[in-house]
Write a structure and sequence with these properties.
It is a single chain. The protein is 58% helix and 18% strand. The longest helix has 88 residues, at 27-114. It has a 5-stranded antiparallel beta sheet with strand order 2-1-5-4-3. Mean pLDDT is 81; it is low at 1-11. It is elongated and about 185 Å long. It folds into 4 domains: 2-106; 115-215, PAS domain (Beta-Lactamase), CATH 3.30.450; 219-295; 298-432, Heat Shock Protein 90 (2-Layer Sandwich). With 432 residues, it is an alpha+beta fold.
Length: 432
């Protein structure tokens, strides 16, 4: 109680009490004392709460800073772990790349030392850095010549081929590799050797490149031998076409001679028709014999024009009253296709001559060959004559000509379409 009083009462107030003592304090004084004491306690409590709040805020700030530091440390540890994992992955990739590079170098070294083709390392100034024995054998120089600097790639090409070197160098600098090209090398002894050359720039040393040179001498020798053999076969093939054509003409002439002795007009007509069929086949061999290059195909336009003209000359009447029109697209027909086509045209045009223009009737005969769709061809033979008899079935007729047309169409794996009004039009559709 005394301590409380000392905190509440001032020294003057205590002195004033003097001898009265604490027992002489009145109730009012005690109440006042209690009020002052409560005020002091409130102020002390407020100051304490303020200090607690300040300390709490300080602790919260310190804790936030500590949490941020911990988070930053975790982030650093996470980044460190990620970098360690990445480093290990890169190390493994590097090991694989080194192993792959070592394997590639070993393989290339085996190719280099195998001397299958000539291999040369050089720079763009023309100096040969390293070559294999196959390349030295190709150009006729020694390794001592190489070491002495007497071997330069830009000086071993003949003048007429150096523009190819310039083009290859420009392509090499632009793309890192040049398209392989054929050229010639000048050997040390002055002889020329044909080669196929390819060059690629080195990635690790862009000013250097590796070149490959393939010796074409054996290839050229075999090519010349093959060309001579082919020329010989071409001569033999032309001779064969010539002899076949001559033999067919002999057969046609024999039939003609025999027909002259036949008085029966129907039999003579049969002989004449056979002659025309033989001549249509002979014409193919004559075209092949006269061709500048040996091929197994006949130009359709030339063949049909010559064949139709040949038929017109064989039948001076009624051809003098008719107009012939031939239209053929620039197609090439294989011989197994051209022969049936020629025989079909012969039969149909001959039939038009004989039956389509009676009593001096004038008109037109047209022959068309066109490709309406890829792989499909239409052969159209027609006239402006009197047309076909009513009810004619070309597949059931006894006419040898129509029977031949049907057989030849089957041989072409084709189909027949007929129009017999206002003239006759026969369309043969077959695959090329």
């Amino acid at each position: 109680m005394n301590a409380i009083i000392e905190h509440v009462w001032t020294p003057d107030e205590l002195a004033h009490q003097g001898s009265h003592g604490i027992d002489n304090v009145t109730a009012e004084e005690l109440e006042l004392l209690q009020q002052k004491n409560e005020a002091v306690l409130r102020r002390a409590n407020a100051r304490l709460e303020q200090r607690v709040r300040a300390r709490t805020a300080e602790l919260a700030q310190t804790n936030a800073a500590l949490q941020a530091e911990i988070q930053a440390h975790k982030q650093v540890e996470h980044e460190r772990t990620r970098l360690l994992v990445r480093e290990q992955a890169l190390r493994r990739e590097l090991e694989v790349a080194v192993a792959t590079l070592r394997t590639s170098e070993q393989r290339f070294r085996r190719l280099f030392d195998a001397n299958i083709i000539g291999i040369v390392f050089s720079d763009f100034s023309g100096h040969e850095i390293e070559v294999n024995d196959a390349f030295l054998d190709l150009i006729g120089y020694t390794r001592e010549d190489l070491q002495a600097g007497r071997v330069q790639w830009n000086m071993r090409t003949p003048p007429e081929y150096r523009h190819l070197d310039a083009h290859a160098e420009a392509e090499l600098k632009a793309r890192g590799v040049c398209t392989p090209f054929e050229t010639e090398y000048l050997r040390k002894d002055g002889r020329r050797v044909p080669v196929l050359v390819g060059v690629a720039r080195l990635e690790d040393t862009p000013e250097q490149c590796v070149g490959f040179a393939l010796d074409l001498r054996e290839h050229r020798r075999l090519e010349a031998q093959l060309r001579a053999s082919l020329q010989e076969k071409e001569v033999l093939l032309k001779e064969m076409h010539h002899r076949v054509k001559n033999n067919l003409q002999v057969v046609a002439s024999l039939l003609d001679m025999q027909a002259d002795r036949i008085e029966d007009l129907s039999i003579r007509t049969m002989f004449e028709n056979s002659q025309q069929r033989i001549r249509s086949i002979a014409l193919i061999h004559e075209i092949l014999y006269q061709a500048t290059d040996v091929v197994a195909h006949v130009r359709a336009a030339d063949y049909l024009s010559q064949l139709s003209q040949q038929l017109f000359e064989a039948y001076p009447s009624p051809s003098d009253r008719l107009i012939l029109r031939v239209h053929a697209e620039p197609l090439w027909l294989a011989v197994p296709t051209a022969i049936p086509c020629g025989l079909i045209v012969t039969e149909l045009v001959t039939n038009s001559f004989k039956h389509a223009f009676p009593n001096g009737l004038m008109g037109e005969i047209h022959i068309t060959l066109r490709q309406d769709s890829p792989g499909t061809c239409n052969l159209i033979v027609g006239d402006t004559g009197v047309g076909l008899p009513e009810g004619l079935d070309v597949h059931a007729t006894e006419s040898l000509g129509w029977q031949l047309v049907c057989i030849l169409t089957e041989q072409l794996r084709g189909t027949i379409a007929l129009e017999g009004h206002g003239g006759t039009t026969v369309t043969i559709t077959f695959p090329l």
